[in-house]
Amino acid sequence: MNLKLKALKKSLWVYHVSAGSCNNCDIEILDLLTPRFDVERFGIVLVGSPRHADVLLCTGIVNKKCVERVKEVYEQTPKPCVVVAIGACACSGGIFRDGYQMAGPLNKIIPVDVYIPGCPPKPEAIIAGIVKFLKEIK
Amino acid sequence: MEELKKVIVPIGPYHPLLEEPEYFQLFCDGEEVVDVEWIAGYNHRGIEKLAESKHWDQVTFLVERICGICSTSHPFAYCNAVEDLAQIEIPERAKYIRSIIGELERLHSHLLWIGLAGHFLGYNTVFMWAWKYREGILDMFEMITGNRNHYAMFRIGGVRRNIEDEDIPILKKTLSEVEGKIKMLTEAVIDDPVLSARLKGVGILNKEDIKNYGAVGPIARASGVDIDVRKDDPYAAYNLVDWKMITTNNGDVFDKAVVRLLECFESIKIINQSLDRIKGTKGEIWKEVREIPKGEGIGRHEAPRGEVFHYIRSDGRASSPIRHKIRAPSYVNIPTFKASCIGETISDVCIILAGVDPCYCCTERIAVYDKEKKKKVYSFEDLVKKSIEKTEKIKKEIGKESKLWKKLF
Q1: Which of B115, B130, B358, B390 keeps 20 to 30 A from B259, CA to CA?
Q2: Do B131 and A122 touch (CB under 8 A)?
Q3: Please, are residues B131 and A34 in contact by the beta-carbon 8 Å criterion?
Q4: When comparing pLDDT for B1 and A57, which is higher?
Q5: Using a CB-CB distance cutoff of 8 angstroms, which residues of chain A are in contact with residue B13?
């Protein structure tokens, strides 16, 4: 296995990008860090800068004002990195797909590795999605 | 003024902890903030325009997705608006169920806020506690509606799902557990000398400011302005149950926290009474609505952050609204930063911005720019760090002899 990939999956540091979401996926991501789910026990930590991150958790439809910002964040993230599209909006546009402000979905803007659908996905679903991906790259 | 604007501190537009992307610029003179600018649009999704292309029933789901934290407030106000337009009187059972959902949402939203506020002050214990106890309320939501967030409970003419009699004892038990925890949290916040030192007298908004900016919700009530749609223009079951409006007079961040915490108990009172009334009774939960006549209607709801306002116009022929106007509470509450932040220090700005519960999602970074092109970039974490440092300093001054900690351990 690629050394970089091996190092990547030891302890995932995640950065959270909200590109025009309704907050709900964002709250569920925060919920993951609090005592009920507590993903920190698996070494998953939320970091404050994309430069420190292994994983980008992206939510929202990616509206026209956000496009440049999202690309910038992706470029700043050290590679290899994992991009996770969380929620119906990031995966497909959801209920907003016909809106005039829609520039996404996310895979039109940046390459996406994992899709976690749901509106919002339950925290369990987010954990399951990440675990599935980690098994996949083994 | 130009002379004074020495340093600009932009906050945003992305930060991992907060909700909606918003972008603030603080103009600073040393530590003191002299002006605040707000740039919006990072979360614009064109919902009002989309509503004009959706069916009346679909719009309930669309407006639900305006905000994930107040995901019942918008359908609530929208249904009120359509029912006002079509002159529909909803069944009594539906009224109680609507109130229960509305108040459960207020509980989870206020707990969420108190957690985030704790985090900004460097009290991560409060953050973890509040979010842990919030899970109980999300469980109740899951039991009643089938989803943790985005409940899809509302429809024009009533509610979609019934609260079954056999669920009521479990709901009441969970609620009383949560009530005990909130009581502990309230005592923890109100008695703590460090929190008092950090929050009292910070970010004061007086009655005049509230009126000038048209602020609503807990922010207005913390400044002694008794404005609450539930009392002023009762809808659903709010005039059928007994509860009182919480107001305080100081208008600082501490009072905003106190108002929110005490409101939780009023919400619990409303839910308990409503559950008692619907227990053992049977009745319709929705009324069939065949068509929406020509006309216009307004609907209001007291969301956790203040008054939500929806305006609907129909031409009587189309199957969707001709015009749908939405005004969310944060829209009027956020500009109060102009009154509350100016003259405060940078380390207090963090909590003042958070004190309004502005629903800002992803403010990522803070950069400090000097006017003479001497550029220095801080991350948003540095701002939080500054805030935490101040708390630590005060902690040392006051000492660890807190009444609260003795009570807890």
Answers
A1: B390
A2: no
A3: yes
A4: A57
A5: 69
Neighbours of B337 (CB within 10 A): 24
Q: Give yes or no for B66 touching A (CB within 8 A).
A: yes
Q: What is the pLDDT of residue B367?
A: 34
pLDDT of residue B274: 93
Q: Is A62 an interface residue toward B (CB < 8 Å)?
A: no
Q: Which residue has the tokens 């958070």?
A: B354
């990616």: which residue's tokens?
A62
pLDDT of B22 reads 59
Q: Please report the beta strands in A60-112, taking only residues with DSSP state E, as ranges in sequence order.
A: 82-86
pLDDT of residue B358: 62
pLDDT recorded at residue B97 = 92
> Which residue is listed with tokens 């070494």?
A43
Distance (Å, rounded) from C-alpha B147 to C-alpha B274?
21
- List CB contacts (< 8 A) between B148 and chain A: 28, 120, 122
**Half-sphere exposure at residue B373, Cβ-oriented, CA atoms within 13 angstroms:** 0
% chain A with pLDDT above 90: 13
Asked if A23 lies within 8 A of B49 by C-beta distance, the reply is no
pLDDT tens figures, B329-378:
887 887 787 788 777 777 777 777 777 766 543 222 233 333 333 334 45
Domains of chain B: 7-43+340-408 (no CATH), 47-331 (1.10.645.10)
Q: Is the pLDDT reported for residue B16 higher than 50?
A: no
- Is B338 within 8 Å of B214 (Cβ atoms)? no
- B19, B20, B45, B386: which to substitute to probe chain A, counting the most A Cβ within 10 Å? B45
Please state the domain extents for chain A: 3-136
Phi, psi of B111 (to 5 degrees): -65, -40
CATH class of A3-136: alpha beta
Helices (H), B202-252: 207-213, 218-222, 229-232
The CA-CA-CA angle for residues B396, B399, B405, to 5°, reads 125
Query: Cα B115–B364–B337 angle (5° rounding)?
Result: 65
C-alpha distance from A4 to closest chain B C-alpha (Å)? 25
Q: Tell me what ipTM this predicted complex has.
A: 0.88
Quote the distance between the C-alpha of residue B107 and its chain's center: 10
